[in-house]
Amino acid sequence: MFPKSTNAGALALLAAPIVVIAAVLIQPTLSGDAAAQVTALTGNRGAMITSMALGLIAVVLLIAGIIWLALAVAPSAPRLAVAGGVLGVFGALVVLFENSVAAAAPAIAGELGHAQATAMLERVHSGAIAAAEPLALLGGIGIALLGIAAFKAGAPRWAAAAIAVGALGQVAGFATSTKALVVTSFAILFAGLLPAVRTLRTPTRQHPAAEPVPATAVS
C-alpha cells in the first residue's frame, strides 16, 4: 500500500492535463487580445468564468503533481529532479499569477462598456501579464527535465519523450493562442505521464536472501 499523500500527488499529476483540456475546450477564445476577451466575456460569460476556474484548479493540481514527480525521481536522478522540480513549480506559479490577474477580467467587462473594458484589459496585459509570460517557458522546461529523470528511473523512453514534447508544446500553444496545439500537447503529456506514474508507483520487489546451505558433516 502507498501512503495517501503519494497517491494524491500521483493523481494530481494525472488530473492536471485533463482539467486543462476541459478548460481550453470550454473557453471561447485563447486570444490575448483585449477586445476579443471582452467580446467573449460579453457573449459567453459563463463559459469564460468556468474555464478560468478550471484553469486555476489545474495549476494547483500541476504544482502538487510536479512536487510528487520530483520527489519520486530524486533517488534515480537527483540533479534533474531538483532542476526540474524548481523550474516546473516556478513556471506553474507564474501561470497561477497570470490566471489570478486575468480573473479580474469578468468584473471589468461587466462593469464597463466594451471600449472602456478593452482599454483597461490592454493595460493589464501590457503590464504584469506581459512581463510574466516569458517566464512560463521555464515551467515547460522543468517538466521536460522531469520526464528525462523519469526515464532514468525506469519509465519507457517514449513516455519521457512524450512528456517533453507535451510540456514544451503546450507553452507554444498558449503563446500562439492555438487551441488545437494546447489540447494536443496536453493529451500527449498525459499519455507520457500515465506510464511514468505507473512505473514510479510500482514497488521494487525485494529478492529473498539466499538461505545458507547446511554444512555437510565430514566423516
Helix-strand sequence: HHHHHHHHH
DSSP strand (E) fraction? under 5%
Radius of gyration (CA) equals 22 Å
Helical fraction: over 70%
* Nearest-integer average pLDDT: 82
* Total discrete domains: 1
- How many DSSP-defined strands? 0
Q: Report the total helices.
A: 9
| Low-confidence spans | 204-211
- The shape, in one word, is elongated
What does the largest sheet look like?
none
Distance between the termini: 51 Å
Q: Structural class given helices, strands, pairing?
A: mainly alpha
Structure write-up:
- The protein is an all-alpha fold.
- It has one domain.
- The longest helix has 29 residues.
- The radius of gyration is 22 Å and the shape is elongated.
- It starts with a helix and ends in a 19-residue tail after the last helix.
Present the secondary structure layout.
Blueprint: H1 4-26, H2 34-43, H3 45-73, H4 78-102, H5 105-111, H6 114-132, H7 136-152, H8 157-175, H9 179-200
Summarize the structure.
By secondary structure, this protein is mainly α.
Describe this protein with a few key phrases.
78% helix; mainly alpha; 219 residues; single chain; 9 helices
